[in-house]
């Protein structure tokens, strides 16, 4: 099988039975032609097509088990050259959407790849969880499956943990264990890409579990076609017609709450079972978090570059690029892009083999990128709005160009650098980044996709080795005392 093509992806998408709810509609027919999914399905197909033809060398490698070419995000890197190849592949996929697609397949493939290398961590008590992770990785790799995942319990009452909610089965948990596997009841929030092939359910990388949380401390993966599994989607932000909504029409990934209505997880798909200790450490102990965060940083650099390019085009189009404060704002975007790339370079330069043999980027710059991003990314939409101003509302539907007011549009919508039609297209793109429902979701995504930034910062504070800096302060005080 190996790396799939866009056509193969779409065929699998439309032939897999699943329970996706869009309002009162259960999507039963071809998912790829539903208005909420058509654009993103076509974009995802485009990504998979890049693995073939001229792109094959840059996007795939030879599978150690089958000899087929498989996606590079599955590669378990051992050399700097392999790390560089992985990064090149991630950047190529990120650039397709200007970094707007948060969940290109390499995000979760990278996580699974690292977990499989560190599979020993999952243990063998009772069941061969370690073997399950290894075999699952190989299965996903060889079949090039698209994964979604869900880590967080429903937002019902954050003042207490999952076991103290009004109903102990609000958060997904173990209902029972039987000969076939583990039965899960409850829900998780949120899963981006509800049209994936498989869903991985793992513990949060931020929220910690205690002994009370035993039945909630689980890790597993099942096909989306599993009986009892339901995805309840949000309203689609995919705008129509496409020319009026240049980004949302192609890149609305969709997000869903996932309901487990007594879902049977077969034993060979269970990775963590009623084990808060392993649940709390799985992503750190296997370095899955490093490889996921590295992928995210590559995408973030791509997005910062794209938004810097867009802000420059908007400013130049209306002759605002000469104003120092506009230049300063675009400089901020360029600084963000360069900072994210510098983090990546530093992490690669200081990469070391981890205890499982993976050449692993240094987590200090990667974790710093992970914590800086939710602080800087929200400024993107602010900057685009400050530069575009009312021009962001001078975006009539594209068929205005075929209307009786075409002459007025040609005259009054022209800009310093472009004809009316081109200027409107540029500003529609800017609005989709900064102000549309799609843009709003992008802003929220960047703030939260890797966890609550407040608790992440707290964890960063505790984790960062501040001792050498403290020591320097003390040394300076000592030297003054000595004077
Ligand atoms: C667009 C989008 C897509 C996403 N896609 C996915 C996905 O595919 N898979 C996935 O698993 N997750 C996904 N997420 C969810 C993401 O993991 C969470 O948003 C993130 O972990 C924060 O959790 P929460 O949203 O439940 O916020 P909450 O935990 O409900 O936080 C709400 C507020 O309360 C505060 N708060 C809550 N508890 C505490 C506490 N103990 N201490 C201090 N402050 C607290 C927070 O700081 C925040 O201000 C997505 C999120 C978004 C926005």
Would you give an account of this structure?
The protein has about 475 residues and is an alpha+beta fold. It has two domains: about 5-285, Butyryl-CoA Dehydrogenase, subunit A, domain 2 (Beta Barrel); about 285-470, Butyryl-CoA Dehydrogenase, subunit A, domain 3, CATH 1.20.140.10. Helix content is about 45%, strand content about 15%. It has 17 helices and 14 strands. The strands form four sheets. Strands 2-1-10-11-7-6 form a six-stranded mixed sheet, with no helix packed on it. Strands 5-8-9-12 form a four-stranded mixed sheet. Strands 3-4 form a two-stranded antiparallel ribbon. A hairpin with a 2-residue loop joins strand 1 and strand 2. Helix 1 (about 5-15) crosses helix 2 (about 40-50), helix 9 packs across helix 11 and helix 10 runs antiparallel to helix 12 (about 380-390). The radius of gyration is 24 Å and the shape is globular. Flavin-adenine dinucleotide (FAD) binds near residues 192 and 441.
């Amino acid at each position: 099988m190996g790396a799939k093509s866009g056509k193969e992806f779409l065929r699998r998408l439309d032939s897999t039975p699943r329970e996706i709810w869009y309002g009162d509609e259960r999507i039963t027919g071809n998912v790829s032609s539903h208005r909420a999914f058509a654009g993103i399905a076509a974009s995802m197909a485009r990504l998979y097509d890049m693995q073939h033809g001229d792109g094959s060398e840059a996007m795939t490698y030879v599978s150690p088990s089958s000899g087929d070419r498989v996606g590079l995000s599955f590669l378990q890197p051992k050399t700097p050259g392999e790390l560089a190849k992985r990064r090149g592949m991630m950047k190529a996929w990120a650039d397709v959407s200007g970094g707007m697609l948060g969940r290109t397949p390499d995000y979760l493939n990278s996580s699974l790849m690292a977990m499989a290398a560190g599979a020993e961590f999952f243990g063998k008590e009772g069941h061969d969880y370690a073997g399950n992770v290894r075999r699952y990785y190989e299965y996903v790799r060889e079949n090039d499956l698209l994964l979604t995942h869900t880590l967080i319990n429903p937002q019902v009452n954050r003042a207490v943990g999952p076991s103290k909610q009004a109903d102990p089965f609000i958060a997904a948990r173990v209902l029972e264990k039987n000969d076939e596997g583990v039965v899960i009841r409850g829900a998780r929030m949120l899963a981006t890409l509800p049209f994936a092939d498989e869903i991985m359910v793992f513990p949060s990388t931020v929220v910690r579990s205690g002994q009370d949380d035993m039945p909630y401390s689980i890790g597993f993966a099942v096909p989306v076609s599993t009986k009892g599994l339901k995805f309840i989607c949000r309203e689609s932000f995919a705008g129509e017609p496409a020319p009026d909504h240049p980004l949302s029409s192609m890149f609305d990934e969709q997000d869903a709450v996932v309901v487990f209505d007594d879902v049977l997880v077969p034993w060979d798909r269970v990775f963590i079972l009623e084990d808060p200790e392993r649940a709390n450490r799985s992503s750190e102990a296997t370095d899955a978090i490093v490889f996921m965060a590295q992928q995210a940083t590559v995408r973030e650099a791509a997005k910062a570059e794209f938004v810097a390019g867009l802000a420059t085009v908007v400013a130049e189009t209306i002759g605002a690029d000469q104003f120092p404060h506009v230049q300063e704002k675009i400089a901020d975007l360029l600084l963000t892009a360069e900072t994210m790339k510098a983090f990546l370079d530093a992490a690669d330069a200081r990469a070391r083999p981890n205890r499982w043999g993976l050449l692993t980027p240094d987590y200090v710059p990667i974790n710093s990128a992970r914590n800086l991003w939710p602080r800087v990314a929200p400024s993107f939409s602010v900057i685009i709005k400050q530069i575009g101003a009312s021009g962001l509302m001078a975006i009539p539907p594209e068929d205005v160009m075929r209307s009786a007011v075409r002459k007025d549009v040609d005259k009054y919508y022209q800009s310093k650098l472009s004809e009316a039609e081109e200027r409107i297209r540029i500003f529609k793109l800017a609005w989709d980044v900064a102000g549309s429902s799609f843009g709003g979701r992008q802003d929220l995504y960047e703030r939260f996709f890797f966890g609550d930034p407040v608790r992440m910062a707290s964890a960063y504070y505790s984790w960062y080795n501040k001792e050498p800096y403290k020591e320097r302060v003390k040394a300076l005080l000592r030297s003054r005392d000595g004077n």
